[in-house]
Amino acid sequence: MNDSLAQKYPAGNGISVVTHFADLWRRREVLKRLGIEKSHWHDGIRKGFYPPPIKIGAASRWGAGEIEVLRLAIVSGQSGDGLKSTTASIVAARVSGRIW
Hints:
The chain contains five helices and three strands, in the order αβααββαα. By secondary structure, it is mostly helical. The longest helix is centred in the C-terminal third of the chain and has 17 residues, at about 80-95. It has a three-stranded antiparallel beta sheet with strand order 1-3-2. The chain is globular and about 35 Å long. It has one domain (about 25-95).
């Protein structure tokens, strides 16, 4: 994908468009950055510890900035409700159009 695709799909209707598709990571990159297994990641998404993917057709991606915020939260010792709160902030930022 390239930046011209972002120009074809401008932000609107409450949907935020990432201007650089390189800022969206595949699951394998997310797992590598966080150092966790696929099953742990999906279980964490179901339980609200990790953010759900950004869907682009059938593809699932996560914002690089979102994952960095999540990684810093984990490194700083957040777990349980603290991690859920960070994830809720990430999801709220997506909905409001803010990009990490």
